[in-house]
Amino acid sequence: MNAELSQLIHDLDAVAADAKSSFGQLTTEQLNWKPSSSEWSVAQCLDHLIASNQGYIPIINEVNRGEYKRSLQERLPVLPGVFGSLVLNAVKPETKRKLKAGKGFEPASSEIGADIVSRFETQQKQISELMKTTHELNLRKIIITSPVLSIVTYSLFDAYRIIVAHDQRHVAQAKRVTARDGFPGT
C-alpha cells in the first residue's frame, strides 16, 4: 500500500505543480476566458476541483482522529468496489464522455479572481499532507461515502485515486482552453 499511496501523493503533487506552471502567470482575463458560453474557463476548471475536493478533507480528518463511523450503506460488502471503479473510470483524463457537475460542484459563473491558482495549489498541498497521514491505515478497508453523491460509497484508497484522476482530467481540460483559438495573448 505504501508504494501505491506514495505514487498517488506524487501524482497529486505533480498536478498542483503543473497547474501552477501552466496557469500561475495568467491574467484574470485569461483565467476567465471561455471558448464558448457552454464551456468552462481555466478558472472554472480549478474552481470546480476546489469545490469537489473540499468534501474529502473533513472525512480524512475524521478518519485520522479515529472518529469516522461507517454508515449502514458503507458496510455493504459489494457496493464500494463497484462504485469506486465506476466513478474512477468516469473521471479519468482519457475518458471522453462529458459529465455534468453535480449541484454545489458547478464552478462560479461570475469572474473568478486571479488567486484561483494559488488557492488550488494550497488545497492540493493540504490534501497531499492529509494523504500522508493515512499511510499506516488499510485504505482499502476504510469505506466512505462520496461527498459528491450520498448514495455512492468507495474505499478511501479509491477516493484518493478519484481525486488524482479528476484533478488530472480538469487540469488537462484547462490546458486545452489555453490552446484554443481566441485565447487572449499575454
Helix-residue proportion: 55-70%
Total number of strands: 2
Give the terminus-to-terminus CA distance: 44 Å
- General shape: elongated
- The structure class reads mainly alpha
Query: What topology, given as strand order, has the largest sheet?
Result: 1-2
Mean pLDDT: 86
Write down the Rg: 17 Å
Tell me about this structure.
The protein has 186 residues and is mainly alpha-helical. 56% of the residues lie in helices and 3% in strands. It contains seven helices and two strands. It has a two-stranded antiparallel sheet with strand order 1-2. A hairpin with a 7-residue loop joins β1 and β2 (153-155). The longest helix is centred in the C-terminal third of the chain and has 23 residues, at 156-178. The protein is elongated, with a radius of gyration of 17 Å. The termini are far apart.
Task: Break the fold down into its secondary structure elements and pairings.
Elements: H1 2-23, H2 28-32, H3 42-54, H4 56-65, H5 79-91, H6 116-133, E1 143-145, E2 153-155, H7 156-178
Antiparallel strand pairs: 1-2
Helix pairs in contact: 1-6, 1-7, 3-6, 3-7, 4-6, 5-7
